[in-house]
């Protein structure tokens, strides 16, 4: 089984648009993890296509702006 990590940190609309890739990946038997900001993680907790939802808290990371530029 292939694994993939979908990462989306920006606004709610962008996070929802990123979710459009889930079905094609799921149909191709990918194991999907989704990394997003803490306020948005609950949107994906019950999604059957996602194996693991990871919540990122930007206030807990000192260099969030630098991290964001590299992602």
Would you spell out the secondary-structure blueprint of this structure?
Elements: E1 3-8, H1 12-18, H2 22-27, E2 31-37, E3 52-56, H3 64-70
Parallel strand pairs: 1-2, 2-3
Helicity level? 25-40%
Low-pLDDT regions: none
How many domains? The number is 1
Task: Work out the radius of gyration.
Answer: 12 Å
- What's the N-to-C terminus distance? 25 Å
Strand order of the largest sheet: 1-2-3
Mean pLDDT across every amino acid position: 85
In N-to-C order, the SSE pattern is EHHEEH
3D shape: globular
Sheet-strand content, in percent, reads 25-35%
Q: Give the number of helices.
A: 3
Helix/sheet category: alpha/beta
Summarize the biggest pleated sheet.
3 strands, parallel
Number of DSSP E strands = 3
